[in-house]
Each structure stands twice: as C-alpha cells, then as structure tokens.
C-alpha cells in the first residue's frame, strides 16, 4: 500500500513561487509513476504534470515553462516547483501514484486521474492578485 503526504502549499502573490512536496511510503518512488493534479472550487480536477517510474515527465500546456516536476529518489519524494504563479493557479493540489510504468509514453500522459489508485490528502495553493 502506497501512502502519499503532500506539503508546501500556501498563499503567494501573483508572480510568486511555491514548491510542493509529496512524500512516498510503502514503495520506492522509482517503482511508481506519479502525477500532480489540482482542483479549483467549482471546477473538475485536472492533471498538471506526470512523471513515470522510468523518469519520463510531461507537463500540461497551461503550466509548461512555469512548473517543473521532479523526484528525489534518495528522499523518496516527488516535487512540483511552481513559478510565475497567477490567481488561475489557485486550487487544492494533490499527488497521485500508481505502481509500475507506462503513464508517460513518448511525451504523452496516458493515464487519467481515475486510474491512479493512491492519493495524498491535498494541499491548498492560493495566489492573490
């Protein structure tokens, strides 16, 4: 059973930065594929970034160039570095995991949120103008 615990959310002004962390337990991060998702009030959950167990990454268009997904294998932790934040980025951010690979294939994120069985509790990110 994989457990995920996010941290690093908070409140920033437009143009600010935050780094979210997702600590993984129950398996090694190099054996799981992971994603960051977000859900704003009144909106559906949407994918933000993914990293496959083999290290392949993908960012969705609206965060490309601003966000970076990475992992520290020694710390068994996933990160989401968020720069140039805008009020539109305000949401609860959650990390998710699935054991195995194949979620990023040739630069394409092949898995939707419902296919990830393991989720963290979420962390609030609020960006003020």
Give the tags.
single chain; mainly beta; 7-stranded mixed sheet; about 0% helix
What is the averaged pLDDT score? 96
What is the beta-strand fraction? Answer: over 45%
Which secondary-structure class do the elements indicate?
Answer: mainly beta
> What is Rg?
14 Å
Q: Which ranges are low-confidence, i.e. pLDDT below 50, for 5 or more consecutive residues?
A: none
Largest sheet: 7 strands, mixed
Categorize the overall geometry.
Answer: globular
Encode the helix/strand succession as letters: EEEEEEEEEEEEE
**Measured distance between first and last alpha carbons:** 40 Å
What level of helicity do the residues show? Answer: under 10%
Report the count of strand segments: 13
Layout of secondary structure:
Blueprint: E1 3-7, E2 10-13, E3 18-25, E4 32-39, E5 46-51, E6 57-59, E7 67-72, E8 77-82, E9 91-99, E10 104-105, E11 108-109, E12 118-119, E13 123-128
What is the gist of this entry?
The protein has 129 residues and is an all-beta fold. The chain has strands spanning 3-7, 10-13, 18-25, 32-39, 46-51, 57-59, 67-72, 77-82, 91-99, 104-105, 108-109, 118-119, 123-128.
How is this structure best described in words?
This protein has 129 residues and is mainly beta. Helix content is 0%, strand content 52%. It is built from no helices and 13 strands. The chain has strands at residues 3-7, 10-13, 18-25, 32-39, 46-51, 57-59, 67-72, 77-82, 91-99, 104-105, 108-109, 118-119, 123-128. The strands form 3 sheets. Strands 2, 4, 5, 6, 9, 12 and 13 form a 7-stranded mixed β-sheet that branches. A 4-stranded antiparallel β-sheet has the order 1-3-8-7, with no helix packed on it. The radius of gyration is 14 Å and the shape is globular. The termini are far apart. The model has no long low-confidence stretch (mean pLDDT 96).
